[in-house]
Write a structure and sequence with these properties.
With 220 residues, the chain is of the alpha+beta class. Helices cover 65% and strands 12% of the residues. Helix 2 packs antiparallel against helix 3. The two termini are 31 Å apart. The model has no long low-confidence stretch (mean pLDDT 76).
């Protein structure tokens, strides 16, 4: 394996670890924040039954309006701002939660585990493909099948993440209605869809050229 490939692989591994670590940190940080809020309410004798939701919000009057403001401590200026993402801590929950909302919440919990599993499994497949280069086994049907697993996982990642965001949007619309903002669904991760389709096409090209090469060798 060339030194250049080693460098590229190391950069890819470091980038992926940072990305995955950041996602895990966000999940843990949100969980710790909810737990701290529950402990404070418990210590103050307040009911600790609450739900935590997250979503993207946009001003109801349009994206060019600024219905909220905060003080800039460096200048003292009252800065008009526009919130895009928020975490909602709901204390007043509905007495009756429809069955479909309960199913969606349970499904989202399962989808999170599926997403984490895909994130963890992807680098192992990539490592096997890169390792095959050093053993001169890259251009084989077995290795091409491994390469095809990468785009399939990326496409699964796109669809699972999209379903999670759709379910989250439905859950948010049941629990929350804001006065000056609309709660909107998060943008779908089209980068995974695009990269997955590109790699899938390239893997099919590799497979086709390998079949043609083997047929020519048999003919000769």
């Amino acid at each position: 394996m060339s030194k250049r490939l080693y460098v590229y692989t190391a950069i890819l591994a470091i980038t992926y670890i940072i990305f995955l670590g950041n996602r895990v940190y966000e999940i843990i940080d949100a969980g710790i924040g909810g737990a701290k809020l529950g402990m404070r309410e418990f210590e103050n004798g307040e009911p600790s039954n609450f739900d935590v939701l997250g979503g993207k919000i946009t001003p109801r009057e349009g994206t060019a309006t600024f219905p909220s403001a905060m003080i800039n401590n460096k200048t003292g200026e009252n800065i008009r701002i526009e919130f895009r993402e928020a975490i909602f801590y709901l204390k007043q929950l509905p007495n009756i939660i429809p069955l479909h909302i309960k199913i969606l919440k349970i499904s989202n919990s399962l989808l999170i585990f599926i997403l984490i599993g895909i994130f963890i499994y992807l680098p192992f497949i990539a490592y096997k493909v890169i390792k095959s280069v050093s053993k001169d086994k890259f251009y084989t049907i077995q290795n091409i099948n491994k390469i095809r697993e990468i785009p399939i996982l990326l496409l699964c990642l796109f669809f699972v993440d999209s379903i999670y965001k759709i379910f989250t949007s439905i859950i948010n619309s049941f629990y929350i209605q804001l006065e000056e903002y609309n709660i909107i669904m998060e943008e779908l991760n089209y980068s995974c869809l695009f990269i997955g389709l590109v790699i899938l096409i390239l893997s099919e090209i590799l497979r086709y050229t390998l079949v043609i090469k083997e047929e020519q060798e048999l003919t000769v």
